[in-house]
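User: Let's play a game. I give you a shape written as tokens, and you guess the letters that built it. Ready? Here's round one.
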């Protein structure tokens, strides 16, 4: 059943060091003219290729809806990617930059951006496999891992709601079991995280 599948996958997320290691925390600090940090944002990302992490654009730039590549590249900010400790490997924090070659006009409307980091290999971190969501997606269970608490990352799960939101990109609404149990609708920090169904990424959380 869907309930059994969700519990099985969630346990896999908790105990699978490769999956967790491949979903880093994304921290962005806006700087003033003197280089001091004035605003900070936190989100989630996931490895899509060696040295490349996909995340939500609004984590990198709060004014993303009107941003252009030139302004993004010259903004005063610091971007860090922190790979969590997993599988016996220590946590690793690296500086990151916007990957220009993947930035197009659709980035702002679809709210995504690719970040690059070096070195392009981090022990235990592997690209997550892409998948597709079938047309009959209602109540299909999903799992994820995100940085929704100050204490670090946590495994999350839920299912898809019947409502399909159309726009420049296909968007679905989901229900999260952890926020429902806590009577809290906030998933702040999960933006940019992968939505995983049957072991493959079918979407990215954007809010």
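Assistant: Ready! My guess for every position:
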């Amino acid at each position: 059943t869907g309930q059994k599948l969700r519990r099985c996958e969630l346990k896999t997320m908790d105990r699978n060091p490769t999956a967790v290691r491949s979903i880093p925390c994304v921290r962005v600090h806006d700087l003033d003219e003197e280089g001091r940090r004035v605003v900070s944002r936190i989100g989630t990302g996931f490895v899509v290729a060696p040295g490349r992490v996909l995340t939500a654009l609004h984590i990198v730039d709060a004014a993303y809806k009107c941003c252009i590549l030139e302004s993004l590249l010259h903004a005063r900010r610091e971007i860090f990617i922190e790979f969590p400790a997993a599988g016996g490997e220590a946590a690793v924090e690296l500086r990151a930059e916007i990957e220009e070659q993947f930035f197009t006009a659709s980035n702002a409307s679809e709210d995504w951006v690719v970040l690059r980091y070096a070195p392009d290999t981090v022990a235990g971190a592997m690209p997550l496999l892409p998948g597709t969501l079938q047309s009959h997606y209602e109540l299909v269970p999903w799992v994820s891992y995100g940085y929704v608490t100050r204490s670090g990352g946590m495994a999350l799960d839920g299912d898809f709601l019947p409502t399909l939101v159309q726009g420049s990109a296909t968007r679905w609404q989901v229900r999260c079991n952890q926020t429902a149990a806590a009577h809290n609708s906030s998933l702040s920090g999960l933006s940019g995280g992968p939505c995983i169904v049957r072991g493959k990424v079918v979407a990215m959380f954007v809010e």
